[in-house]
């Protein structure tokens, strides 16, 4: 059997190598820069003004939410000896429901959400929400635009602890950030498209336009999860506009990266440093993780509206569904804990804040549709992952992130990967989990980007 598996593995490597090395160079990437995502009757009536916006938790919404939480049906008891291996342990859920219904201070948290200035502007038919946090620094301190992008099941709430650090001048640096933190289309306070097709590639078009509308011709970007995919697309599509890309979910998904990954399965030392090899290999561990933890991905990529009905109707269901992801994706060993380890890294208030972004806006269904859009034939055929980018890039790699790739693989996509920060802590939601470490790494990376640009030969016009 071992010989058969080895022979099969060798065939897979040969096939991937042939695919990676014999395929044609990608053609010129063509993306519709003006695709309309709003109602057709509003086409041509786009209001490009920038309007202030306030987060509101209405009394009617709060009353309805509390009623739903307090009148849920009895939950099925967990199996003996099971913690979070089967999902959210129903013995652990009642304290969360009680807190949300009876103790969560809705109006106080509404004020908290509005501590930063919020705005909306219409782009390609959608009202796009964003936070714009400006630094208060001396006139001799450079102000740098930074676009930061969240993913699912996160929201702009993930950045609230990091923004005050990013907008302050830090010791040893003569700059601070003006932070732009948008809600992805279909998430939170941004409009959702009314027709299919809007993936992270199209989001890249929208967010480039957002930054231009705010007066930023060139800017830096940061992203995790879907924000990372959007950032990768922005770096690929707009290398003249993006000055640097910092990501806490760096992935090169092209054919060359796949080839190197398979080679490393047989000869790890050719691909990854020995002390980090266990973050990638054996591949059987990674595939087991995919099988155990990515059922939600397949469901959301195929039938988002079906699961959306349940999550829209039941706040208890929404809580279990989303918080289970904050448990496992922070540290997969949390599956073995009766409480899922949720309060080892977060407070109840923080996590309920994030839930409120989905519940108050009724955006859970439209947010999970992104999985279907990004894996659709339309967007797969773009093959954007096979296009390299010259934008300087920095990878911030947490110990418990689901995917780890070393520089030898990341450089197949990010040719100017200036460096990596490899953490011995942290998971998928780094800005939320470790805001100070996260913010300081962004600052360090942008400083490296600035130095890199200074070192490049100037081209004559």
Topology, pairings included?
Layout: H1 2-22, E1 51-53, H2 59-70, H3 93-103, H4 106-113, E2 118-123, E3 126-133, E4 142-149, H5 163-166, E5 175-182, H6 200-213, E6 219-223, H7 226-237, E7 242-247, H8 255-266, H9 283-293, H10 295-302, H11 304-313, H12 315-328, H13 348-359, H14 364-374, H15 377-380, E8 393-397, H16 407-410, E9 417-422, H17 430-433, H18 435-455
Parallel strand pairs: 4-5, 4-6, 6-7, 7-8, 8-9
Antiparallel strand pairs: 1-2, 2-3, 3-5
Helix pairs in contact: 1-8, 2-3, 6-7, 10-14, 11-12, 11-14, 12-13
Number of helices: 18
Major beta sheet summary: 9 strands, mixed
The total beta strand count reads 9
The mean pLDDT is 92
Q: What is the gyration radius calculated from CA atoms?
A: 22 Å
How are the strands of the largest sheet arranged?
1-2-3-5-4-6-7-8-9
Helices and strands, in order, run as HEHHHEEEHEHEHEHHHHHHHHEHEHH
Look at the helices and sheets and give the structural class.
alpha/beta
| Low-confidence runs of at least 5 consecutive residues | 1-23
Assign an overall shape. globular
In whole angstroms, the N-to-C terminal distance is 64 Å
Estimated share of beta-strand residues: 5-15%
Q: How much helical structure, as a percent, in the residues?
A: 40-55%
Describe the structure.
- This protein is an alpha/beta fold.
- Helices cover 42% and strands 12% of the residues.
- The chain has helices spanning 2-22, 59-70, 93-103, 106-113, 163-166, 200-213, 226-237, 255-266, 283-293, 295-302, 304-313, 315-328, 348-359, 364-374, 377-380, 407-410, 430-433, 435-455, and strands at residues 51-53, 118-123, 126-133, 142-149, 175-182, 219-223, 242-247, 393-397, 417-422.
- α2 runs antiparallel to α3 (93-103), α10 (295-302) packs across α14 and α11 (304-313) crosses α12 (315-328).
- The protein is globular and about 65 Å long.
């Amino acid at each position: 059997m071992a010989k058969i598996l080895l022979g099969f593995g060798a065939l897979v490597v040969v096939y991937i190598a042939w695919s990676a090395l014999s395929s044609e160079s990608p053609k010129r990437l063509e993306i519709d820069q003006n695709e309309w995502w709003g109602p057709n009757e509003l086409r041509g009536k786009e209001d490009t003004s920038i309007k202030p916006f306030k987060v509101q938790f209405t009394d009617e919404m709060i009353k309805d939410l509390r009623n739903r939480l307090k009148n849920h049906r009895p939950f099925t008891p967990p199996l003996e000896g099971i913690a979070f291996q089967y999902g959210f342990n129903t013995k652990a859920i009642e304290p969360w429901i009680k807190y949300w219904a009876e103790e969560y201070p809705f109006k106080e948290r509404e004020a908290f959400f509005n501590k930063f200035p919020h705005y909306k502007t219409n782009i390609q038919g959608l009202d796009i929400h964003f936070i714009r946090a400006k630094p208060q620094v001396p006139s001799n301190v450079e102000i740098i635009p930074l676009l930061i992008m969240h993913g699912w099941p996160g929201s702009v709430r993930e950045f609230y602890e990091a923004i005050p650090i990013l907008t302050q001048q830090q010791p040893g640096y003569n700059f601070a950030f003006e932070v732009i933190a948008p809600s992805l289309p279909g998430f939170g306070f941004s409009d959702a498209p009314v027709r299919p097709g809007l993936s992270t590639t199209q989001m890249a078009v929208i967010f480039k336009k957002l930054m231009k509308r705010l007066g930023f011709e060139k800017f830096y970007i940061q992203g995790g999860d879907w924000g990372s995919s959007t950032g990768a697309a922005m770096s690929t599509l707009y290398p003249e506009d993006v000055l640097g890309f910092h990501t806490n979910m760096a992935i090169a998904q092209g054919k060359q990266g796949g080839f190197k990954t398979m080679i490393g399965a047989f000869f790890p030392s050719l691909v990854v440093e020995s002390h980090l090899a266990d973050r990638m290999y054996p591949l059987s561990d990674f595939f087991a993780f995919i099988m155990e933890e990515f059922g939600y991905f397949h469901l959301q990529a195929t039938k988002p509206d079906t699961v959306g009905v349940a999550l829209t109707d039941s706040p208890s269901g929404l809580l279990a569904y989303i918080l289970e992801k904050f448990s496992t994706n922070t540290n997969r060993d949390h599956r073995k804990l009766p409480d899922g380890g949720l309060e080892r890294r977060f407070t109840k208030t923080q996590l309920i804040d994030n839930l409120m972004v989905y519940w108050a806006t009724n955006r859970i269904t439209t947010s999970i549709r992104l999985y279907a859009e990004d894996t659709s034939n339309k967007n797969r055929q773009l093959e954007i992952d096979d296009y390299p980018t010259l934008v300087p890039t920095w990878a911030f790699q947490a110990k418990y992130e689901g995917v780890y790739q070393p520089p030898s693989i990341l450089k197949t996509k990010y040719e100017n990967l200036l460096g990596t920060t490899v953490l011995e802590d942290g998971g998928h939601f780094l800005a939320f989990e470790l805001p100070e470490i996260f913010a300081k790494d962004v600052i360090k990376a942008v400083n490296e980007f600035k130095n890199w640009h200074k070192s490049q030969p100037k081209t004559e016009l």
